[in-house]
Amino acid sequence: MSLLWRNKVLLAKIETSYGVDAAPAGGDAILATEVRLSPMQGQDLDRALDTPHGGPTGTIPVDLHRTISFKVELAGSGTAGTAPRWGRLLRACGCAETETVGTSVAYNRVYSGLESVTLHLNIGGTLYAMVGVRGTAAFDVSASGIPYIEFDMTALYVAPADSAIPTPDFTGIPDPLAATHSNTPTFSIGGTDLVMRNFKLTLANRVETQFLIGGEEVFLDGHDNTIEARVRAVPLATFNPFVMAETQAKLAVALSHGTAAGNQIALGVPRAQMQRPEGLEDGQGRKEWPLRLVPLPSTPSAADQWSLTVT
Q1: Is the dihedral of CA 21, 26, 31, 37 positive or negative?
Q2: How many CB atoms are closer than 10 A to CB 192?
Q3: Under the phi-then-psi rule, with left for phi > 0, alpha for psi from -120 to 50, and beta for the rest, what region is 3?
Q4: The pLDDT of residue 54
Q5: Does the model's pTM come out above 0.85?
Q6: Helix or strand or coil: residue 245?
Q7: What integer is the mean pLDDT of 168-193?
Q8: Coil, strand or helix at 241
């Protein structure tokens, strides 16, 4: 009997204890696309025995873990103050989730009390359970496209098993809005409104695995946040990224997407250092700048490089 690749269900639930399966159910379903799974990562120890035949003598698999990547549509829950389903995934990427009932849900980087999730990916009746999952993410908004959060997650290894495909419940996951002039009303750098073709804020968490006697863990060892944006060039008197890069200017970056309550996304970066513009692009006959910026904290110990708020 063949197993269909498209017949898959992805579930995610925050773990109460690290590495202990949180038993996600249908109501924990994640609507994902471009799912890619590496089911058995690790290394093979060569026994390298000296034998008369002089050939291979076998290997021992160690440091087993699993990686998975996928994209989730950047849309709220449809109800102001209720966390979107993807919020639990950001929590496993070193982010705090703060709910203000009936008003908003906010996300920002934290350095302690890091959480983890259990993922269950069922493909055609085979369950790939993943525990102790942590990872990194990127926010991607491109004109005339669906805004996405791109996740790259690493998990402790659990042997695959035959399991009935669960029935997913996607209640509370509204349809996304395409990134357009009307749906994405704000994009500015340093207080200057710019015409934007694409934007990506990459968290770039450094994800490490540790396999010791008495303990195994996926942990986050710092991060290298970056912003890439391609914008229409304007007169230098209006906006001069070359001088900004030369003077190490720290600029606020603001992007908002969505128009209805419960589905309005505001991404803010208070202090982003402009990097050297390294090229120019032809955007349908108009000059465009590919810009690079690095989000910086207000102080060396602060966790305020960026914030994302859903209202």
Answers
A1: positive
A2: 12
A3: beta
A4: 81
A5: yes
A6: helix
A7: 96
A8: helix
